[in-house]
Amino acid sequence: MNTTETLLWVVIPYVCLAVFVLGHVWRYRYDKFGWTTRSSQLYESRLLRWASPLFHFGILAVFLGHVMGLGVPKSWTEAVGISAEAYHVMAVGIGAIAGLCTLVGMVLLIYRRRTVGPVFRATTRMDKLMYLVLAVVIFLGLWNTVAGSVLNLGGYYDYRDGVSVWFRSIFLFQPHPELMAAAPLGFQLHGMAAMLLFALWPFTRLVHVFSAPVFYLWRPYVVYRSRSDRYGARAARPGWERVDRPQKVR
Amino acid sequence: MRVMAQMSMVMNLDKCIGCHTCSVTCKQAWTNRTGTEYVWFNNVETRPGQGYPRTYEDQEKWEGGWTLTKNGRLRLKAGGRLKNLMTIFASPKQPSIDEYYEPWTYDYENLTNAPLQEHTPVARPKSLLSGQDMNVTWSANWDDDLGGSPALAAADPVLAKISDKVKLEFEQTFMFYLPRICEHCLNPSCAASCPSGAIYKRSEDGIVLVDQDACRGWRKCVTGCPYKKVYFNHRTGKAEKCTFCFPRIEVGLPTVCSETCVGRLRYIGLVLYDADRVLEAASVTDERELLASQRSVFLDPNDPAVVREAEAAGIPRDWVEAAQRSPIWALINKYEVALPLHPEYRTMPMVWYIPPLSPVVDVVAETGEDAEDPGNLFAAIDTLRIPVEYLAELFTAGDTVPVTAVLKRLAAMRSYMRDLNMGRDADASIPASVGMDEASMYEMYRLLALAKYDERYVIPSAHAEQAHGLEELATECSLDYDGGPGMGGSGPFGEGSGVNDPIAVENFHMLRQRQTTDTVADPSTRKARVNLLSWDGKGAPAGLFPPRSGTDGPHLRDPEGPSGETQPLPAGGSVPGPAGTGTEPTGTPPTGTPPTGPARDDDAGAGR
């Protein structure tokens, strides 16, 4: 384990993850009002109608694939009787399709963002940086899937014996940087770009991922709120805790 | 029985002259900001006409409101919960900006900066969305006063529901104005559509609000509201809607649109209703039953049993008394002259309308007959099928019977009161012919024609013991909030990001900025907004009116600037106003901002 390896695959990941977690906490506390999707559908919907679902559903599938590939150890899938070949075919097949949808959707969305005047005008500098990093991550990920696993450029590499183990080791606080150092360049770049994206995440519009409104499915349709549980637009002052008034006795 | 109180409004359309004062003052108070250029919490439509946004009433196209499933249950017309979530990435039924209008400003600078030339320089329209030159082809009131008829009015979805042959005749017969705000429905489909649960109905007074901190910009509410009264702020990415001017209502003042209504046609008051019966009432099979079923949900505030239940539900005594004096209750359930707008959307709207009799009177008068004779008027209401059918499509899901009944009551009141005004004997048979007695007819006349301010607006203020719960808190220094005092322009993540400013503070700074700056309100800075909310109508704060010609208003002079020269506004940046320099503005401090008197100006300035 040399210094470069440690820096690249231990220090940077932990720093990025810390920024990711603390950044979200800070952003949520400081900027609930800015926590939004910043939809641009009002300006243009013809392109968005296709591009946005393509991208979003695609990236959701990609995310689930990563949960599968990075989160589930190889021994587990083999224990339930999925052979390495079957897993490989499934992962590459679904992954390539999902990745392609994501890529096409993203290209269309970026094209729309650049060419539709009002949309481009509503694009912040942070958005542009985020789009760049996100595009690099997605492109590298798709490149690894297609070039690495389908075309077998540079020989066969089973990321489930390398990258995945390293990824889990980060969260087990027993990092194995040597596994990443041994991975092909494509995987290294993809991982590094993803780390950068995680560090950027809390400061971009990507925070809307964490407000995926799944609770809508169970919530009562009409929400009632009392004036008294809102306390106005006033934030609580540090050092002072609110004391609830005793409820009126009925 | 679960008694809840609802703040609601009735508008008497006979009195609306279409002056748009309500719209303008509302816009000044609430939506005079970047991102809300196209947003009209209050708008006035000419009927027949397409409305705003265009053809919003065509629910087959826009899929707003509720629909009844085959097994008799209510479902959002745009689809159930799962479909709602699955279409979150691109909302299929959201009106585009073209359905509203592309907001614009003019290149005024060209008028003063253009070099000497043969032709007069012009201020060209510039899009506020793209910044490019644009052709103005539509606006919020493009078809005002039937402008562009018959080509434009023919696209009116309500007109399409009544048969073709009446159209031509109809255009010659009548036109009226329909002022619209958010309906603050009992069964709001916008709230039901909101995936984040950010839209809520206040349990005290039923006002429907958007929690700006919880809204995530999924824009489903825009589709959900059949009245299209939830708007998407395209700069902040959040939904915004009519607030029923809750900061004013909480202290007993009517909404801005009502306060400034020239025709005094708006009434505000409480209605008590049984919250347990709302869903059942909204689910009746026959659309034409919805008017009656909604009326039956309202509870008689004079009924001792209702009063008892209201008190058990924690409704303060003075609120119950206000409900007893409520003009809304009287107009809806006592005189039965107010009707809901589009009950067939099944949202149980709570802004009701007294349909206009004037078109009928006009037609009779044009024939040379006596337009106030009850016989003539009654006959005209019966024969003038067209206006009645049109009104029925608006107010009673197409059922002409209730509309005719209301118009006859209004006609009877006219005839009955004419006898009194002319010094003749009152004709008791006229009220009797519409099912009223003389006393209640006179009372109704008083309410419709003479009612003073405190009779039109019966608004109990929010309670002192709830003061800490008020959204607009005035018991402490309102600059004491996290990150305060002061307010900035755009936060680090775009327009409006960062900690929210309490409304009082925002108003104070905006008002002062507005009054002391020497540039025109620039939509790109949040500070340059005008807010009439904080003006209580007493006195004229500096900057309310432009300086008189010849005398340069002293408050318009920059105290730091050399010889009172004007400073250009940096693009998108903050205005170096007096507040920024820490000196007192020379203008009079604004009235009506109690929490922040002039003594705090230095504090406010230093913190910026």
UniProtKB/TrEMBL annotation, chain A:
Heme b 1 binds at H56, H190, H208. It comes from the Bacteria. It is found in: Cell membrane. It is a multi-pass membrane protein. Keywords: Cell membrane, Electron transport, Heme, Iron, Membrane, Metal-binding, Nitrate assimilation, Oxidoreductase, Transmembrane, Transmembrane helix, Transport. GO terms for molecular function: electron transfer activity; heme binding; metal ion binding; nitrate reductase activity. Residues 6-227 form the NarG-like domain. GO terms for biological process: anaerobic electron transport chain; nitrate assimilation. Its cofactor is Mo-bis(molybdopterin guanine dinucleotide); heme b. It holds the Pfam family Nitrate_red_gam. Heme b 2 binds at H66. In the central section; belongs to the NarJ/NarW family. Does not seem to have nitrate reductase activity. NCBIfam families: narI. This is Nitrate reductase-like protein NarX. It comes from Cellulomonas fimi.
UniProtKB/TrEMBL annotation, chain B:
GO terms for cellular component: cell envelope; membrane; nitrate reductase complex. Residues 483-497 have a biased composition (Gly residues). Its cofactor is [3Fe-4S] cluster; [4Fe-4S] cluster. GO terms for molecular function: 4 iron, 4 sulfur cluster binding; electron transfer activity; metal ion binding; nitrate reductase activity. InterPro entries: 4Fe4S_Fe-S-bd, Nitr_red_bet_C, Nitr_red_bet_C_sf, NO3_Rdtase_bsu. Residues 7-36, 173-204, 206-235 form the 4Fe-4S ferredoxin-type domain. Residues 481-501, 533-608 are annotated as: Disordered. The keyword Oxidoreductase applies. Residues 576-586 have a biased composition (Low complexity). One of its GO terms (biological process) is nitrate metabolic process. Pfam families: Fer4_11, Nitr_red_bet_C. Its main location: other. Keywords: 4Fe-4S, Electron transport, Iron, Iron-sulfur, Metal-binding, Oxidoreductase, Repeat, Transport. Coiled coil: none annotated. Residues 587-597 have a biased composition (Pro residues). Residues 599-608 have a biased composition (Basic and acidic residues). Its EC number is 1.7.99.4. It is found in: Cell envelope. This is Nitrate reductase subunit beta. It comes from Cellulomonas fimi. The gene is narH.
